[in-house]
Amino acid sequence: MGIGSIKSLGSVDPQAAYGGVKTVRDQQASFADQLKNAISEVNDMQVQRDSKVEQMVTGEATEVHDVMIAAKESQLAFELLLEIRNKLLESYQEIMRMQV
Question: Is 65 part of any domain?
Fold first, then answer.
């Protein structure tokens, strides 16, 4: 592979390759939307965990490690969401204590 072929790679237009430039508003969802998505994902994980536990109890699922992994993922996601809520609450309380 020669140096000429490496230089030709630099001439690729990123806008043409990736479908144009999006505005900052299109690329970033609002904080409320991101929080709603996170809550929805945690809820989906918990529903999936519950269904795997139910399958295990009824004898449909034979893999115990899949059930344990789903349970641990669900637990960690919930704990992370809880810590985010705690930090948001602390931030709100700190702002409310500020003197104007």
Answer: yes
Give the list of residues 6+ apart from residue 49 with CB closer than 8 angstroms, or none.
67, 70, 71, 73, 74
Look up the pTM and report it: 0.64
**What residues make up the domain containing 45?**
28-97
pLDDT above 60 (res 83): yes
CA nearest to 51, candidates 60, 38, 39, 40:
60
Half-sphere exposure of 99 (CA within 13 A, CB side): 0
Q: Do the domain assignments include residue 22?
A: no
Query: For residue 5, what are its two tokens?
Result: 């072929």
Q: What is the residue whose two structure tokens read 């609450």? A: 89
pLDDT tens column, 53-81: 999 999 887 789 999 999 999 999 999 99
